[in-house]
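Hey, I'm writing a tutorial for new members on how sequence and structure tokens pair up, and I'd like a real worked example in the thread rather than a made-up one. If someone can provide the structure for the chain below, I'll link this post from the tutorial.
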Amino acid sequence: MSRIGRNPITVPAGVTIEVANGVVTVKGPNATMSRNLPEGITLAQDGDVLTVDRSSEETSQKSLHGLTRTLVSNMVVGVTTGWVKELEIIGVGYRAATSNPAVLDLALGFSHPVKYNAPAGVTFEVPSPTRVIIKGPDKEVVGQVAASIRKIRKPEPYKGKGVRYLGEKVARKAGKAAK
């Protein structure tokens, strides 16, 4: 049995989970999320404990068992506390600003400023010009937004300038050797 899939999910107070026609819907104080369940995977709720079960011992069912449990658990966390990714901007003149929580204005050394519009449910906070906080209920979307912003100006290996995740280590290279 899947080590991850057999772990129960504790459902906090204020969160309701409904399963109908192969779609699981999680409603909480911050958001409502839904996802299609794979065939052969079922959810059973007993009080404040949710368990994920599979119908057979096929390899495909085993792999979907743990995946589904993790995705539903991420949905429960997302509707209660939400997910956060932090980025830091390194470089002279590189900065971020926001006038609207859904639009991020970036100055990353290009000849023009870059505007990044957040998808629905995702917000930006800029506590300092070199730090960006991305918040939202869906872990996948928050991670994808962070990766898309990082992709605009990846950290380069010589001076380390660019956008990186908070705490990310960038492998540095030596420059040209003098003769």
